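Quick one, tokens below:
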């Protein structure tokens, strides 16, 4: 189960809780709420690991693309060196290696930006979830305090 599913279950718990007559307060099963919060605590580190893994995989892909580009450029340079007398072939090889390098740099930049966007999106989602959860807990505590103080 992922963090968003657990948050949905927390909302369902709150929505399904009994209302206190003539107030906006609700009675929440504390054990269920704490169990869901504990599940959320257990799931979040895993989702962080997954996003870090994705970023690392993309970085590995970028590194591999750079290695391939370096090899292609080296091969092109070696071939061009053999054919020094044939300037047209050298010109074509240089153009091709520049095109390949530009293409690889563009792909690498795109992959890096996508990885950063993905990680940022996951962190933003997590932040929103945590804010919702914190607000729900604060409301519950306020309601509890109001209930306790009104009984005094």
């Amino acid at each position: 189960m992922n963090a968003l599913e657990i948050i949905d279950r927390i909302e369902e718990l709150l929505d399904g809780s009994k209302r206190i007559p003539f107030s906006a307060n609700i009675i929440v099963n504390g054990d269920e709420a704490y169990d869901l919060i504990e599940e959320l605590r257990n799931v979040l580190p895993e989702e962080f690991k997954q996003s870090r893994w994705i970023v690392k995989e993309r970085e590995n892909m970028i590194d591999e693309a750079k290695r391939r580009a370096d090899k292609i450029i080296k091969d092109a340079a070696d071939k061009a060196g053999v054919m020094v007398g044939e300037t047209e072939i050298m010109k074509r090889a240089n153009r091709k290696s520049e095109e390949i390098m530009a293409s690889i740099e563009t792909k690498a930049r795109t992959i890096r930006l996508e990885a950063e966007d993905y990680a940022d999106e996951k962190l933003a989602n997590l932040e929103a979830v945590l804010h919702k959860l914190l607000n729900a807990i604060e409301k519950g505590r306020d309601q509890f305090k109001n209930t306790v103080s009104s009984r005094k």
